[in-house]
Design goal:
Distance between the termini: 29 Å
Number of domains: 1
Largest sheet: 5 strands, mixed
CATH topology: Trna Endonuclease, Chain: A, domain 1
Radius of gyration: 14 Å
Order of helices and strands: HEEEHEE
Strand content: 25-35%
Strand order of the largest sheet: 1-2-3-4-5
Structural class: alpha+beta
CATH architecture: 3-Layer(aba) Sandwich
Number of strands: 5
Helix content: 25-40%
């Protein structure tokens, strides 16, 4: 249960950080039959699919496997197929890592 709450808190921190940067949050914790996307944000013509990870230590190398990346991509493709208004938007996949006593680490275009 602690990990779950830590994950929810990390998602909220990242959500607020993107809002501060003038992104609109379209979805939070979007679950589909092909995968889950933690956050979907929009600013201008940029649509961002964000994977949020909470870590107790500083390790973040290799934090997201190729299989996880593919699940997120498939979920993003499903989202786009159901929301045709975003067809001509630029797509980006970000990785956001939240660690205690550090600023969140956001890697744009993580994959």
């Amino acid at each position: 249960m602690k990990k779950y709450r830590l994950g929810i808190l990390a998602e909220y921190i990242i959500l607020m950080l993107y809002k501060i940067r003038f992104y609109s949050i379209l979805h939070r914790r979007m679950k589909t039959y092909v995968g889950e996307i933690d956050l979907i944000a929009l600013r201008g013509k940029q649509l961002v699919f964000i994977e949020v990870k909470a870590r107790k230590n500083g390790l973040h190398e290799g934090i997201i496997s190729e299989n996880q990346q593919m699940r997120i991509k498939r979920a993003a493709e499903l989202f786009l197929s159901q929301n045709l208004q975003y067809t001509n938007y630029n797509i980006r996949f970000d990785l956001a890592v939240v660690r205690p006593y550090h600023l969140p680490l956001i890697t744009k275009n993580a994959w």
